[in-house]
Amino acid sequence: DRTDKAVMGWLPVLAQLGSIIDHSASFVEEMLESPPDHLVVIDYPGLHSNLALMARRLGIPVTYYICPQVWAWAPWRMKRIAQCADQLLVVIPFEEQLYSPYHPRVIHVGNPVFDHLSDVGPAPEIPGSSGDPILALLPGSRRQELIHGLPALVGAACELKAERPELEIWVSCQREELRPIVRDIIGDRKGFHIHSGEARALQSRARLAIVCSGTATLETAWHGVPMVVAYPANDLQKSLYSLLGVAPFFSLVNLFAGEEIVPERLVDPGDGAAVARLARPLLDDSVASLQVSRLEQLKREKFHPGASLRAARSVLQQIPDSGVSLI
Q1: Average pLDDT for 296-317
Q2: With contact defined as beta carbons under 8 Å apart, do 64 and 81 qualify?
Q3: DSSP collapsed to 3 states, the chain
Q4: CA geometry: angle at 325 spanning 68 and 84, to 5°?
Q5: How is domain 134-302 classified at the architecture level of CATH?
Q6: Based on CB atoms within 10 Å of each CB, which residue in 75, 156, 211, 274 is the most buried?
Q7: R_g (Cα) of the chain, nearest Å
Q8: For 174-198, what is each residue's pLDDT tens digit?
Q9: Adjacent-strand bridge partners of 75
Q10: Strands 227-232 and 208-211
Q11: pLDDT tens for residues 31-46?
Q12: How far apart are CA 298 and CA 308, in angstroms?
């Protein structure tokens, strides 16, 4: 399980290089000793594209499920992703068109997050909440996202709180080991609360959310909460996205919609004022209601569960005489 070792960027990857090599060696050994009928790799391109290529060289068919969003930051890698699998299962509608020039079998199966969201019950209460309108900060669950993204979110929250003192600020911290980082970034600022565990309580009860791009944006949209999206990026990353990015948006909500429903911005730690400018209009009830109605329409039209079942069927179709049937 490499969940706690998920990293992005060259330097963090180099720091994990020894672990990655050991993991790859163990994988090849297992494939040689007990080759599977079919290998499914999920996202994580830095490691899984190489493991998939190794498996194909050993004659093992490969499905790439949840193809990496390399189109956002390294579109030239789409060809490599396509070369390492026998079929590509994508989870964003427009990705089918993006990957099709590189592979004959690209299937949009939907996003599995909607399977989870359709099955969960009512959102839990927020212990310690006063009942005042909540401004939710959702910086993501990776250490890097917190370090580089949360400062701008905190800066924006301070500006909005100064204008609207009734706002109750809650910061999502999905992993307890990251709580010290959240505390350090908040510092001695008053009026900030930390919510531990899954972010669903905040996503469903917030008056306004400021969200890093990713699955959290779809979850927040599912609950019909007004939001802006602020994704951490340094000046070089912003330039590369501007020059090389092939998608018109980077937030998943806007990509699903094919238009801008939620304001989005690439931010560095000092961009709090800019994020506040994006979020401020949504404190107006009429503006927020308009966005919510568009989110609800998007949910009706495109946020459909069943992705996991469709993906499983696509994989089983690639395994002759599997003996498994899915209803």
Answers
A1: 96
A2: yes
A3: CCHHHCCCCHHHHHHCHHHHHHHHHHHHHHHHHCCCCCEEEECCHHHHHHHHHHHHHCCCCEEEECCCCHHHCCHHHHHHHHHCCCEEEECCCCHHHHHHHHCCCEEECCCCHHHHHHHCCCCCCCCCCCCCCEEEEECCCCHHHHHHHHHHHHHHHHHHHHHCCCCEEEEEECCHHHHHHHHHHHCCCCCEEEEECCCHHHHHHCCEEEECCCHHHHHHHHCCCCEEEEEECCHHHHHHHHHHCCCCCCCHHHHHHCCCCCCEEEECCCCHHHHHHHHHHHHCHHHHHHHHHHHHHHHHHHCCCCHHHHHHHHHHCCCCCCCCCCC
A4: 25
A5: 3-Layer(aba) Sandwich (3.40)
A6: 211
A7: 21
A8: 999 999 999 999 999 999 999 998 8
A9: none
A10: parallel
A11: 899 999 999 999 888 7
A12: 20
The Cα–Cα gap between 73 and 56 comes to 26
The three state secondary structure string of 110-168 is CCCHHHHHHHCCCCCCCCCCCCCCEEEEECCCCHHHHHHHHHHHHHHHHHHHHHCCCCE
From-to residues of CATH 3.40.50.2000 in the chain: 3-112+306-316, 134-302
In angstroms, the CA 91 to CA 3 distance is 20
Report the candidate in 148, 299, 307 with the shortest Cα–Cα distance to residue 219: 299
**Is residue 10 very low, low, confident or very high in pLDDT (cuts 50, 70, 90)?**
very low
Structure tokens at 226: 């007004």
**Position 293: which residue type?**
S
Sequence letter at residue 202: L
Q: How far apart are CA 158 and CA 160, in angstroms?
A: 6
* 3-112+306-316 CATH, one of 3.20.20.70, 3.40.50.720, 1.10.1740.10, 3.40.50.2000: 3.40.50.2000
pLDDT band at residue 84 using 50, 70 and 90 as cut-offs: very high
- Name the average pLDDT for the chain: 89
